[in-house]
Amino acid sequence: MPTPRRHFPPRRPAGPRLRRRGLAIGIDIGGTKVAAGVVDAEGHILREARRATPGSQPREVERVIVELVDELSSDYRISSVGIGAAGWMDLEGGTVLFSPHLAWRNEPLRDNLERLLRRRVLLTNDADAAAWAEWRFGAGRGEPRLVCITLGTGIGGAMVLGGRLERGRYGVAGEFGHQIIMPGGHRCECGNRGCWEQYASGNALGREARELARANSPVAQELIKAVEGDIEAITGAVVTELARDGDPTSRELLEDVGEWLGLGLANLAAALDPGTFVVGGGLCDAGELLLDPARRAFARNLTGRGFRPAARIERAALGPRAGLIGAADLSRVNRVAGWGR
Amino acid sequence: MPTPRRHFPPRRPAGPRLRRRGLAIGIDIGGTKVAAGVVDAEGHILREARRATPGSQPREVERVIVELVDELSSDYRISSVGIGAAGWMDLEGGTVLFSPHLAWRNEPLRDNLERLLRRRVLLTNDADAAAWAEWRFGAGRGEPRLVCITLGTGIGGAMVLGGRLERGRYGVAGEFGHQIIMPGGHRCECGNRGCWEQYASGNALGREARELARANSPVAQELIKAVEGDIEAITGAVVTELARDGDPTSRELLEDVGEWLGLGLANLAAALDPGTFVVGGGLCDAGELLLDPARRAFARNLTGRGFRPAARIERAALGPRAGLIGAADLSRVNRVAGWGR
């Protein structure tokens, strides 16, 4: 049951036309920094601010959020605040079930913040926020069945189906990175083995490159040189940079990761049949060096190929601010499947 | 664009309350038989009829459909006809994209039949029809996020999300059986290797049992005896019967298949987070001998276990008539995501 509302308009889902007026603040809580911005109804960021992530203690995070909102709202009339963070939020957007960066557990974070901020607050998963932004303003605009993938250290995922975020029965849908595609394969931090994100993420790219370097393969010399012999310093970003500079080994490593990406996308297409996949996240800095092999592997592994239209695979358009933009917009329009039902 | 309507009411989606009145005929076109029935608004079958499947030629199948509808509608006032068949129908329920039992390809089958029958006709995938029936009248009643799996020779799948069948962008969602869970694994008739249905279906059970029998393993003697030495005659159904009679080897084989089933369901839960899985199809005759190991493997492989509510795994309630009942009901209420938008 919702708690009684106070000094701000009641939370209810937007009508068939999304509410178009008003500014919102979006806040993206990451592992190292908290980014915030004033976002208008067309998805433009009017002003930005950021802080270092203050640790995961509820009071500290609340304090930073309040500071950021105070700073950003001095010159703007803000109707609502959307907060995106890695982890699982409940379906209503009120409490944190689990998050690596937020120590709230089943506490009414939204209500706490609404009391402090005297504004409508929405709490959402960062991948959901990014997907919403891409659907509203980015590479997924107009797509009735959109699946978004964020390739960072792991794989984030979200779906916008029929103009609503589909978050599942308990709000934890979209964990595509934890589909097991190699039983008995690499250990995943989720506790399983063989999860997709162990094969198609920035972490996977770094791990493969380090393994190659440790084997002291002659083809790994550019990699080893780039980190002056400190093999543990080889990350996905290092490989991506070398690949863009033309290093054939780094390109092969990206190709391997791209193939796993395409295979996992084919699995998602079998289940979900989206019209478009939007692929974002840091690993996408590799651009076509990643997406071209992914598209080929997707086409090769799509079940029913030749008898069905195939989904497009597009690079995300909004970059690292997608989460902030999406959180702000969601707080305004509130279109999540399940809400308001 | 829809073609102009004729002597029957216009097709439009039901309002928030499903239309409750009227009888519909459901027709399930299978590989060997065509089953039809008059279905009321509570999902009860009032009368049934069936014919042998007449081959896949459009005119022959049309003739059988017309015969069945004529026979069944003599004593009942029928408002609509729903037809379920294996394969892919377009999103509007008007044409067959691909079907093993129907040779129509991009022809307006629905319009042909509406002309012949002078009734509203809906064409749908058999797994979608069965899922809809289980959601409306069976083991999935009241579930806001339902995923259905039909275990037969392969794996059929469908989703009912927020009271609508979710069929994807092009109408071919739900092919869960073709998620690749073992790259380089068993060849699948879809053209790939390692699809889930090669590990968790009636066919998979039969193949594993035949392999064991061919190896002439001492543990396979009951299996070999049951088919009087004709190893090729060992099917999933044979194994299931022996398992129910207590044969330890057949139980082990079912357990293996159940474990693959649970692992694939855990993958679907990661992506879709349903509240309930309903599992039906012939292989479910094995009951708990299959579902108990499936539930254990699901619990063991669910990503985020311990931090999230887990979906229930339930056996389908409506049996082999689910497809017929669902096709009839869908033709009446027409609640498919995408339709009417």
The CATH superfamily of the largest domain in chain A turns out to be: ATPase, nucleotide binding domain
List SSEs of chain A in N-to-C order. EEEHEEEHEHEEEHHHHEHEH
Distance between the termini of chain A: 12 Å
Strand percentage of chain A lies at 15-25%
| Radius of gyration of chain A from CA coordinates | 21 Å
Q: Looking across the biggest beta sheet of chain A, what order are the strands in? A: 3-2-1-4-7
Number of strands of chain A: 12
> What structural category do the secondary elements of chain A indicate?
alpha/beta
Q: Report low-confidence residues of chain A grouped into runs of 5 or more.
A: 1-20
Provide the CATH architecture of the largest domain in chain A: 2-Layer Sandwich
Oligomeric state: homodimer
- The CATH class of the largest domain in chain A is Alpha Beta
Gross morphology of chain A: globular
CATH topology of the largest domain in chain A: Nucleotidyltransferase, domain 5
- Which pair has the most extensive contact? A-B, 51 and 51 residues
Percent of residues of chain A in helical segments?
25-40%
